[in-house]
């Protein structure tokens, strides 16, 4: 059996270098497999041989894509592998974007087959799904044992130029590509059968799925704003100087709460932005531009509302997974309700 030579891209965590504290490491390469690479080789029953592993910190990749891409292309081109494998990235946004970007570059510029895997909400999916196959994963490493066999099986079909089935058969995310197939029943009959199932409340599957968009019902208006407690919440990354709780610049894994009960203004000496998705100069010069504490105090003094809540909540929305952002919002809302807050001024960037 002829060996398939593979180059594997990993972030600092799966590359066994470290966690968020090492997310800024520059690209480096190691000969042979690292960590999950050994599982890939075992699952392929020895057909796949990882000849080189490329590791890059999530933050470094996200902030220096224009520099990282040509370097990785050079390292891949040096040995001309049969397959470029990235991830799996699960729901890690920065990692997913790097995996998608590197796979696209290797496939388009070097003509080498690629494969990766991510959770459907990973921002890397939209960046790459039309150009390549992306195996669908759960949101965490707990899904690793199910995902690796799916990736190996699909990669083997890609390399062998075998017929590749529909997304639900192979386990990859739909690519938005329509394929003509011959069905046993004509379209009108299938449509009527589907309609009857729908009317009877039975399960059915449409052949032309309609995109689903979350609809958030607006909150009821505040009955009497002059008696309301109002809170400030931002995804703009405004944090105390030095970012003491280490909110990530991209794909934030947390939100934080900070006291402002004795402040009328946010100054650049005491606060800064941790956000990695916009030019920080103006926000660092005057953090009120992102979190308008000074304006909120004026409204409070004028009696437009009763009181400004003594704390503000903050996270970073830059490439943060939709599922994570939704969870942060629900949790912050519940905490504010328990503290008697009736309304929120929410700022974004």
What would the keywords be for this entry?
Rossmann fold, six-stranded mixed beta sheet, alpha/beta, 12 strands, single chain
Brief rundown of the structure:
With 349 residues, this protein is of the alpha/beta class. The protein folds into two domains: 4-170, Response regulator (Rossmann fold, 3-Layer(aba) Sandwich), CATH 3.40.50; 225-347, no CATH class.
Structure characterization notes:
This protein is an alpha/beta fold. The chain has two domains: 4-170, Response regulator (Rossmann fold), CATH 3.40.50.2300; 225-347, no CATH class. The chain is built from eleven helices and twelve strands. A six-stranded mixed β-sheet has the order 2-3-1-4-5-6, sandwiched between helices. β4, α4 and β5 form a beta-alpha-beta unit. It is flat. The model has no long low-confidence stretch (mean pLDDT 92).
SSE series: EEHEHHEHEHEHHHEEEEHHEHE
Helix content: 25-40%
Q: Which runs of at least 5 residues are low in confidence (pLDDT < 50)?
A: none
CATH topology assignment of the largest domain: Rossmann fold
Q: Supply the CATH superfamily name of the largest domain.
A: Response regulator
Largest sheet: 6 strands, mixed
Tell me, briefly, the overall form.
Answer: flat
Query: Which architecture name of the largest domain does CATH use?
Result: 3-Layer(aba) Sandwich
Tally of helical runs = 11
Span of the ends, CA to CA: 54 Å
Number of strands: 12
Main sheet: which strands, in order across?
2-3-1-4-5-6
By secondary-structure content and strand pairing, the structural class works out as alpha/beta
Strand content: 15-25%
In total, how many domains does the architecture comprise? 2
């Amino acid at each position: 059996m002829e060996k398939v030579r593979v180059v594997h891209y990993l972030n600092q965590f799966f590359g066994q270098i470290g966690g968020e504290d090492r997310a800024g490491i520059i690209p480096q390469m190691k000969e042979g497999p690292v960590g999950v690479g050994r599982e890939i080789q075992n699952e392929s029953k020895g057909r796949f041989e990882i000849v080189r592993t490329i590791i890059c910190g999530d933050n470094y990749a996200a902030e220096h894509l224009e520099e990282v891409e040509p370097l990785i292309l050079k390292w891949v081109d040096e040995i001309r592998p049969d397959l470029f494998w990235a991830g799996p990235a699960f729901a890690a946004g920065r990692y997913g974007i790097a995996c998608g970007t590197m796979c696209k570059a290797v496939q388009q510029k070097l003509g080498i087959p690629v494969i990766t895997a991510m959770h459907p909400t990973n921002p890397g999916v939209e960046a790459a799904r039309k150009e390549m196959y992306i195996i669908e994963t759960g949101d965490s490493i707990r899904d690793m044992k199910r995902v690796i066999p799916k990736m190996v099986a699909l990669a083997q079909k890609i390399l062998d130029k075998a017929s590749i089935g529909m997304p639900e058969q192979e386990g990859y995310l739909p690519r938005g590509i329509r394929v003509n197939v011959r069905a046993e029943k004509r379209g009108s009959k299938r449509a009527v059968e589907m309609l009857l199932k729908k009317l009877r409340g039975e399960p059915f599957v449409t052949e032309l799925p309609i995109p689903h968009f979350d609809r958030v019902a607006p909150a009821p208006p505040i009955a009497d704003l002059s008696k309301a407690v109002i809170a400030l919440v931002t995804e703009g990354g405004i944090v105390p100087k030095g970012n003491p709780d280490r909110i990530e610049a991209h794909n934030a894994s947390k939100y934080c709460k900070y006291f402002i009960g004795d402040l009328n203004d946010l100054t650049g000496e005491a606060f800064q932005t941790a956000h990695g998705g916009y030019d920080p100069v103006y926000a660092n010069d005057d953090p009120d531009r992102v979190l308008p504490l000074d304006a909120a105090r004026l409204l409070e003094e004028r009696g437009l509302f009763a009181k400004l809540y003594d704390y503000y909540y903050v996270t970073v929305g830059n490439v943060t997974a939709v599922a994570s952002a939704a969870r942060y919002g629900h949790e912050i809302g519940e905490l504010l309700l328990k503290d008697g807050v009736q309304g929120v001024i929410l700022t974004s960037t």
